[in-house]
From TrEMBL:
Protein topology in the membrane: Multi-pass membrane protein
Coiled coil stretches, renumbered: none
Compartments reported by the entry: Membrane
Superkingdom of the organism of origin: Bacteria
GO MF assignments: chloride transmembrane transporter activity
Protein name per its UniProtKB record: H+/Cl- antiporter ClcA
Lineage start: Bacteria, Pseudomonadati, Pseudomonadota, Betaproteobacteria, Burkholderiales
UniProt entry tagged with the keyword Magnesium: no
One Pfam family named in its UniProt record: Voltage_CLC
Record field: transmembrane: 21-40, 52-69, 145-170, 182-202, 214-237, 257-274, 341-368, 374-396
Assigned keywords, A-Z: Membrane, Transmembrane, Transmembrane helix
Organism encoding this protein: Pseudoduganella violacea
Protein backbone atom coordinates (compact mmCIF):
# COMPACT_ATOMS: atom_id res chain seq x y z
CA UNK A 1 0.00 0.00 0.00
CA UNK A 2 2.85 2.40 0.89
CA UNK A 3 4.53 1.61 -2.44
CA UNK A 4 1.49 2.93 -4.32
CA UNK A 5 1.74 6.34 -2.63
CA UNK A 6 3.75 9.19 -4.20
CA UNK A 7 7.36 9.33 -3.03
CA UNK A 8 6.75 12.63 -1.22
CA UNK A 9 4.07 11.06 0.97
CA UNK A 10 6.22 8.00 1.68
CA UNK A 11 8.91 10.36 3.02
CA UNK A 12 6.68 11.76 5.75
CA UNK A 13 7.14 8.81 8.15
CA UNK A 14 10.90 9.04 7.50
CA UNK A 15 10.92 12.73 8.45
CA UNK A 16 8.91 12.13 11.60
CA UNK A 17 11.10 9.21 12.63
CA UNK A 18 14.37 11.09 12.26
CA UNK A 19 13.04 14.33 13.70
CA UNK A 20 12.26 12.35 16.84
CA UNK A 21 15.49 10.35 17.00
CA UNK A 22 17.75 13.25 16.02
CA UNK A 23 15.93 15.50 18.48
CA UNK A 24 16.65 13.11 21.33
CA UNK A 25 20.30 12.85 20.27
CA UNK A 26 20.52 16.64 20.10
CA UNK A 27 19.05 17.10 23.57
CA UNK A 28 21.54 14.63 25.05
CA UNK A 29 24.59 15.87 23.15
CA UNK A 30 23.76 19.57 23.53
CA UNK A 31 23.24 19.25 27.28
CA UNK A 32 26.44 17.23 27.69
CA UNK A 33 28.39 19.83 25.70
CA UNK A 34 26.95 22.67 27.77
CA UNK A 35 28.05 20.99 31.01
CA UNK A 36 31.44 20.22 29.47
CA UNK A 37 32.05 23.80 28.29
CA UNK A 38 31.07 25.25 31.66
CA UNK A 39 33.39 22.80 33.38
CA UNK A 40 36.24 23.77 31.04
CA UNK A 41 35.76 27.46 31.84
CA UNK A 42 35.87 26.70 35.56
CA UNK A 43 39.00 24.53 35.50
CA UNK A 44 40.81 26.85 33.10
CA UNK A 45 40.20 29.79 35.45
CA UNK A 46 41.45 27.67 38.33
CA UNK A 47 44.64 26.66 36.50
CA UNK A 48 45.42 30.21 35.42
CA UNK A 49 44.94 31.45 38.99
CA UNK A 50 47.28 28.73 40.36
CA UNK A 51 50.26 28.30 37.97
CA UNK A 52 51.93 25.85 40.37
CA UNK A 53 49.24 23.28 39.61
CA UNK A 54 51.13 22.30 36.45
CA UNK A 55 53.46 20.21 38.66
CA UNK A 56 50.53 17.93 39.46
CA UNK A 57 50.02 17.14 35.77
CA UNK A 58 52.14 13.93 35.91
CA UNK A 59 50.07 12.55 38.81
CA UNK A 60 46.82 13.58 37.11
CA UNK A 61 47.91 11.88 33.90
CA UNK A 62 48.80 8.70 35.78
CA UNK A 63 45.41 8.70 37.53
CA UNK A 64 43.45 9.11 34.28
CA UNK A 65 45.62 6.48 32.59
CA UNK A 66 45.00 4.03 35.43
CA UNK A 67 41.24 4.63 35.34
CA UNK A 68 41.16 3.99 31.59
CA UNK A 69 43.29 0.87 32.04
CA UNK A 70 40.87 -0.52 34.62
CA UNK A 71 37.53 0.59 33.21
CA UNK A 72 38.02 2.01 29.74
CA UNK A 73 39.90 -0.48 27.59
CA UNK A 74 36.88 -1.01 25.33
CA UNK A 75 36.49 2.73 24.73
CA UNK A 76 40.15 3.68 24.44
CA UNK A 77 39.71 4.23 20.69
CA UNK A 78 37.58 7.35 21.24
CA UNK A 79 36.72 9.03 17.93
CA UNK A 80 38.20 6.13 16.00
CA UNK A 81 35.91 3.72 17.84
CA UNK A 82 32.87 5.68 16.64
CA UNK A 83 34.13 5.80 13.05
CA UNK A 84 34.86 2.06 13.10
CA UNK A 85 31.36 1.30 14.37
CA UNK A 86 29.84 3.38 11.56
CA UNK A 87 31.89 1.55 8.93
CA UNK A 88 31.44 -1.91 10.44
CA UNK A 89 28.75 -2.06 13.15
CA UNK A 90 29.48 -4.70 15.78
CA UNK A 91 28.71 -3.62 19.33
CA UNK A 92 26.88 -0.68 20.86
CA UNK A 93 29.40 1.87 22.15
CA UNK A 94 29.57 1.51 25.96
CA UNK A 95 27.89 4.38 27.76
CA UNK A 96 30.90 4.76 30.05
CA UNK A 97 32.79 6.36 27.16
CA UNK A 98 30.94 9.62 27.86
CA UNK A 99 31.80 10.10 31.56
CA UNK A 100 35.32 8.72 31.12
CA UNK A 101 36.29 11.09 28.31
CA UNK A 102 34.56 14.00 30.07
CA UNK A 103 36.49 13.34 33.28
CA UNK A 104 39.78 12.74 31.45
CA UNK A 105 39.55 15.92 29.41
CA UNK A 106 38.53 18.15 32.32
CA UNK A 107 41.44 16.79 34.37
CA UNK A 108 43.82 17.35 31.45
CA UNK A 109 42.76 20.99 31.21
CA UNK A 110 42.79 21.58 34.95
CA UNK A 111 46.42 20.53 35.30
CA UNK A 112 47.78 21.97 32.04
CA UNK A 113 47.86 19.52 29.13
CA UNK A 114 47.60 21.01 25.65
CA UNK A 115 44.47 19.31 24.33
CA UNK A 116 41.21 20.40 22.75
CA UNK A 117 37.52 19.78 23.25
CA UNK A 118 36.06 18.50 19.96
CA UNK A 119 37.07 14.91 20.60
CA UNK A 120 35.30 14.89 23.94
CA UNK A 121 32.08 16.43 22.61
CA UNK A 122 32.01 14.10 19.60
CA UNK A 123 32.64 11.02 21.75
CA UNK A 124 29.95 12.03 24.25
CA UNK A 125 27.49 12.71 21.42
CA UNK A 126 28.22 9.39 19.73
CA UNK A 127 28.12 7.32 22.92
CA UNK A 128 24.87 8.89 24.13
CA UNK A 129 23.28 8.52 20.69
CA UNK A 130 24.20 4.85 20.43
CA UNK A 131 22.32 4.04 23.63
CA UNK A 132 19.11 4.56 21.64
CA UNK A 133 19.99 1.53 19.50
CA UNK A 134 18.65 -0.91 22.09
CA UNK A 135 15.83 1.34 23.24
CA UNK A 136 14.31 1.54 19.74
CA UNK A 137 15.76 -1.74 18.41
CA UNK A 138 17.36 -0.05 15.43
CA UNK A 139 18.73 -1.86 12.40
CA UNK A 140 22.43 -1.63 11.53
CA UNK A 141 21.78 0.98 8.85
CA UNK A 142 19.75 3.17 11.18
CA UNK A 143 22.43 2.77 13.85
CA UNK A 144 25.07 4.09 11.46
CA UNK A 145 22.97 7.16 10.80
CA UNK A 146 22.30 7.62 14.51
CA UNK A 147 26.04 7.58 15.28
CA UNK A 148 26.68 10.12 12.52
CA UNK A 149 23.98 12.34 13.99
CA UNK A 150 25.66 12.05 17.40
CA UNK A 151 28.99 13.13 15.91
CA UNK A 152 27.35 16.09 14.18
CA UNK A 153 25.49 17.11 17.33
CA UNK A 154 28.64 16.98 19.48
CA UNK A 155 30.73 18.97 17.01
CA UNK A 156 28.06 21.60 16.38
CA UNK A 157 27.25 22.18 20.04
CA UNK A 158 30.83 22.51 21.26
CA UNK A 159 31.81 25.11 18.62
CA UNK A 160 28.49 26.83 17.93
CA UNK A 161 28.63 25.95 14.22
CA UNK A 162 25.55 23.86 13.38
CA UNK A 163 25.96 23.68 9.61
CA UNK A 164 29.65 22.83 9.83
CA UNK A 165 28.82 20.24 12.48
CA UNK A 166 26.27 18.56 10.23
CA UNK A 167 28.70 18.43 7.31
CA UNK A 168 31.53 17.24 9.54
CA UNK A 169 29.51 14.18 10.55
CA UNK A 170 29.01 13.35 6.87
CA UNK A 171 32.50 14.19 5.63
CA UNK A 172 34.87 12.87 8.30
CA UNK A 173 34.23 9.16 7.77
CA UNK A 174 35.71 8.69 4.30
CA UNK A 175 38.12 10.67 2.14
CA UNK A 176 36.47 11.17 -1.22
CA UNK A 177 32.85 10.30 -0.42
CA UNK A 178 29.98 11.64 1.70
CA UNK A 179 26.97 9.75 3.05
CA UNK A 180 24.01 11.80 1.84
CA UNK A 181 21.48 9.30 3.20
CA UNK A 182 22.28 10.73 6.65
CA UNK A 183 22.09 14.40 5.70
CA UNK A 184 18.66 15.09 7.21
CA UNK A 185 19.29 13.44 10.61
CA UNK A 186 22.72 15.10 10.85
CA UNK A 187 21.26 18.52 10.02
CA UNK A 188 18.46 18.19 12.57
CA UNK A 189 20.77 16.89 15.29
CA UNK A 190 23.40 19.60 14.72
CA UNK A 191 20.97 22.53 14.58
CA UNK A 192 18.94 21.44 17.60
CA UNK A 193 22.03 20.51 19.66
CA UNK A 194 23.48 23.98 19.08
CA UNK A 195 20.23 25.56 20.25
CA UNK A 196 20.13 23.30 23.32
CA UNK A 197 23.64 24.38 24.31
CA UNK A 198 22.72 28.05 23.91
CA UNK A 199 19.55 27.49 25.94
CA UNK A 200 21.72 26.32 28.84
CA UNK A 201 23.36 29.77 28.82
CA UNK A 202 26.61 28.78 27.14
CA UNK A 203 28.17 31.33 24.79
CA UNK A 204 30.96 30.77 22.30
CA UNK A 205 34.05 32.90 21.66
CA UNK A 206 33.65 35.70 19.14
CA UNK A 207 36.57 36.35 16.79
CA UNK A 208 36.66 39.90 15.39
CA UNK A 209 37.67 39.63 11.75
CA UNK A 210 36.95 43.18 10.61
CA UNK A 211 36.62 44.08 6.94
CA UNK A 212 37.48 41.30 4.49
CA UNK A 213 39.34 42.62 1.42
CA UNK A 214 37.63 42.18 -1.93
CA UNK A 215 38.77 39.16 -3.93
CA UNK A 216 41.82 40.09 -5.99
CA UNK A 217 44.60 38.35 -7.89
CA UNK A 218 47.11 39.21 -5.16
CA UNK A 219 44.76 37.99 -2.46
CA UNK A 220 44.07 34.70 -4.26
CA UNK A 221 47.79 34.10 -4.82
CA UNK A 222 48.52 34.81 -1.15
CA UNK A 223 45.79 32.44 0.05
CA UNK A 224 46.99 29.70 -2.30
CA UNK A 225 50.55 30.02 -0.95
CA UNK A 226 49.31 30.09 2.64
CA UNK A 227 47.05 27.10 1.95
CA UNK A 228 50.08 25.01 1.01
CA UNK A 229 51.74 25.91 4.32
CA UNK A 230 48.54 25.15 6.22
CA UNK A 231 48.16 21.77 4.53
CA UNK A 232 51.75 20.70 5.18
CA UNK A 233 51.38 21.79 8.81
CA UNK A 234 48.20 19.74 9.18
CA UNK A 235 49.95 16.72 7.68
CA UNK A 236 52.94 17.09 10.02
CA UNK A 237 50.63 17.43 13.01
CA UNK A 238 48.71 14.25 12.14
CA UNK A 239 51.89 12.28 11.54
CA UNK A 240 53.55 13.75 14.61
CA UNK A 241 50.75 12.72 16.96
CA UNK A 242 50.62 9.21 15.47
CA UNK A 243 54.39 8.78 15.68
CA UNK A 244 54.56 10.07 19.25
CA UNK A 245 51.76 7.75 20.33
CA UNK A 246 53.31 4.71 18.60
CA UNK A 247 56.74 5.50 20.05
CA UNK A 248 55.45 5.74 23.60
CA UNK A 249 53.37 2.56 23.29
CA UNK A 250 56.43 0.64 22.11
CA UNK A 251 58.79 2.03 24.75
CA UNK A 252 56.42 2.21 27.74
CA UNK A 253 54.27 -0.87 28.12
CA UNK A 254 52.33 0.21 31.21
CA UNK A 255 49.76 2.70 29.93
CA UNK A 256 49.46 4.99 33.02
CA UNK A 257 53.21 5.69 32.90
CA UNK A 258 52.93 7.37 29.50
CA UNK A 259 50.96 10.45 30.64
CA UNK A 260 53.04 10.53 33.83
CA UNK A 261 56.25 10.86 31.81
CA UNK A 262 54.58 13.20 29.34
CA UNK A 263 53.27 15.31 32.21
CA UNK A 264 56.78 15.65 33.64
CA UNK A 265 58.06 16.78 30.25
CA UNK A 266 55.26 19.33 29.80
CA UNK A 267 55.56 20.70 33.34
CA UNK A 268 59.32 21.11 32.97
CA UNK A 269 58.87 22.87 29.61
CA UNK A 270 56.30 25.28 31.08
CA UNK A 271 58.66 26.02 33.99
CA UNK A 272 61.60 26.67 31.64
CA UNK A 273 59.52 28.97 29.42
CA UNK A 274 57.95 30.71 32.40
CA UNK A 275 54.64 30.89 30.54
CA UNK A 276 51.36 28.99 30.17
CA UNK A 277 50.98 30.26 26.62
CA UNK A 278 51.08 26.83 24.99
CA UNK A 279 48.90 24.76 27.34
CA UNK A 280 45.14 24.40 27.65
CA UNK A 281 42.84 25.52 24.87
CA UNK A 282 44.77 28.71 24.15
CA UNK A 283 41.69 30.78 23.29
CA UNK A 284 43.26 34.12 24.42
CA UNK A 285 46.19 33.62 22.04
CA UNK A 286 43.83 32.78 19.17
CA UNK A 287 41.96 36.02 19.86
CA UNK A 288 45.31 37.87 19.88
CA UNK A 289 46.16 36.48 16.44
CA UNK A 290 43.14 38.33 15.02
CA UNK A 291 44.13 41.63 16.63
CA UNK A 292 47.87 42.20 16.27
CA UNK A 293 51.14 40.41 15.40
CA UNK A 294 52.06 37.54 17.69
CA UNK A 295 55.39 35.77 18.09
CA UNK A 296 56.18 33.94 14.81
CA UNK A 297 57.08 30.79 16.76
CA UNK A 298 53.77 30.54 18.62
CA UNK A 299 52.39 28.00 16.16
CA UNK A 300 55.45 25.78 16.64
CA UNK A 301 55.19 26.00 20.43
CA UNK A 302 51.55 24.92 20.42
CA UNK A 303 52.36 22.21 17.88
CA UNK A 304 55.02 20.64 20.11
CA UNK A 305 53.04 20.90 23.35
CA UNK A 306 49.96 19.34 21.73
CA UNK A 307 51.87 16.48 20.11
CA UNK A 308 53.51 15.79 23.47
CA UNK A 309 50.15 15.84 25.27
CA UNK A 310 48.17 13.69 22.84
CA UNK A 311 51.07 11.40 22.05
CA UNK A 312 51.47 10.57 25.74
CA UNK A 313 47.82 9.70 26.23
CA UNK A 314 46.18 12.83 27.68
CA UNK A 315 42.47 12.97 26.86
CA UNK A 316 40.87 15.70 24.77
CA UNK A 317 40.60 16.71 21.15
CA UNK A 318 42.91 17.95 18.44
CA UNK A 319 40.76 20.63 16.85
CA UNK A 320 41.10 23.67 19.13
CA UNK A 321 44.90 23.27 19.20
CA UNK A 322 44.74 23.08 15.40
CA UNK A 323 42.74 26.34 15.43
CA UNK A 324 45.52 27.88 17.54
CA UNK A 325 48.27 26.54 15.28
CA UNK A 326 46.48 27.72 12.14
CA UNK A 327 45.58 31.18 13.45
CA UNK A 328 49.09 31.93 14.73
CA UNK A 329 50.71 30.51 11.59
CA UNK A 330 48.43 32.68 9.45
CA UNK A 331 49.35 35.66 11.61
CA UNK A 332 53.06 34.95 11.02
CA UNK A 333 52.56 34.58 7.25
CA UNK A 334 50.47 37.76 6.87
CA UNK A 335 53.34 40.29 6.56
CA UNK A 336 55.24 37.98 4.22
CA UNK A 337 52.24 37.69 1.91
CA UNK A 338 51.14 41.34 2.34
CA UNK A 339 47.72 40.45 3.73
CA UNK A 340 45.82 41.58 6.85
CA UNK A 341 46.66 39.67 10.02
CA UNK A 342 43.04 38.88 10.77
CA UNK A 343 42.33 37.51 7.29
CA UNK A 344 45.14 34.95 7.26
CA UNK A 345 44.57 34.12 10.92
CA UNK A 346 40.94 33.30 10.09
CA UNK A 347 41.86 31.20 7.06
CA UNK A 348 44.61 29.40 8.98
CA UNK A 349 42.15 28.79 11.82
CA UNK A 350 40.03 26.54 9.59
CA UNK A 351 42.51 25.43 6.91
CA UNK A 352 45.02 23.62 9.14
CA UNK A 353 42.11 21.68 10.59
CA UNK A 354 40.79 21.01 7.07
CA UNK A 355 44.14 19.49 6.12
CA UNK A 356 44.62 17.49 9.30
CA UNK A 357 41.07 16.08 9.36
CA UNK A 358 40.49 15.90 5.57
CA UNK A 359 37.25 17.89 5.91
CA UNK A 360 37.50 20.91 3.55
CA UNK A 361 33.75 21.42 3.10
CA UNK A 362 32.94 21.41 6.82
CA UNK A 363 35.81 23.82 7.48
CA UNK A 364 34.75 26.21 4.71
CA UNK A 365 31.23 26.34 6.15
CA UNK A 366 32.68 26.78 9.63
CA UNK A 367 34.60 29.84 8.43
CA UNK A 368 31.41 31.37 7.05
CA UNK A 369 29.52 30.66 10.29
CA UNK A 370 32.28 32.09 12.50
CA UNK A 371 33.56 34.99 10.40
CA UNK A 372 30.75 35.90 8.00
CA UNK A 373 29.95 35.16 4.35
CA UNK A 374 32.50 37.64 2.98
CA UNK A 375 35.35 35.29 3.83
CA UNK A 376 33.75 32.43 1.89
CA UNK A 377 35.82 32.57 -1.34
CA UNK A 378 39.14 32.92 0.46
CA UNK A 379 38.26 30.29 3.08
CA UNK A 380 37.19 27.81 0.41
CA UNK A 381 40.47 28.24 -1.48
CA UNK A 382 42.56 27.95 1.65
CA UNK A 383 40.74 24.87 2.95
CA UNK A 384 40.77 23.02 -0.37
CA UNK A 385 44.46 23.71 -1.00
CA UNK A 386 45.30 22.64 2.56
CA UNK A 387 43.26 19.47 2.01
CA UNK A 388 45.16 18.68 -1.19
CA UNK A 389 48.60 19.28 0.32
CA UNK A 390 48.03 17.36 3.55
CA UNK A 391 48.40 13.92 2.03
CA UNK A 392 46.12 10.98 2.72
CA UNK A 393 46.81 10.50 6.42
CA UNK A 394 44.77 12.46 8.97
CA UNK A 395 44.28 12.80 12.70
CA UNK A 396 41.62 10.07 12.65
CA UNK A 397 43.25 6.69 12.00
CA UNK A 398 39.92 4.99 11.19
CA UNK A 399 39.06 7.45 8.43
CA UNK A 400 38.92 5.48 5.18
CA UNK A 401 40.15 6.36 1.71
CA UNK A 402 37.52 6.07 -1.02
CA UNK A 403 39.26 8.14 -3.71
CA UNK A 404 42.65 9.81 -3.94
CA UNK A 405 42.60 13.57 -3.65
CA UNK A 406 43.56 14.45 -7.20
CA UNK A 407 43.77 12.94 -10.67
CA UNK A 408 47.54 13.34 -10.48
CA UNK A 409 47.61 11.01 -7.46
CA UNK A 410 45.55 8.42 -9.35
CA UNK A 411 47.99 8.46 -12.29
CA UNK A 412 51.08 8.21 -10.10
CA UNK A 413 52.76 4.81 -9.54
CA UNK A 414 51.80 3.23 -6.21
Amino acid sequence: MMKRLPEQLRLLPYLLKWCGLAGIVAALAGSASAFFLMALDAVTARREASPWIIWLLPLAGFAVGWIYLQFGRKVEGGNNLLIDEIHDPKHVVPLRLAPLVLFGTVVSHLFGASVGREGTAVQMGGALADQLTHVFRLRHEDRRILLMAGISAGFASVFGTPLAGAIFGLEVLVIGRMRYDAIFPCMVAAIVADQITLAWGVHHTHYALGVVPAVSALGVAAVLAAGIAFGVTGMLFARGTHLASSFMKKRVGYAPLRPLLGGLLIAAAVWLLGSQRYIGLGIPVIVEAFQHPVAPWDFAGKFLFTVASLGNGFKGGEVTPLFYIGATLGNALAPLLHQPFALLAAIGFVAVFAGAANTPLACTVMAIELFGPQIGPYAALGCVVAYLFSGHVGIYRSQRLERLKSAMDEDAPR
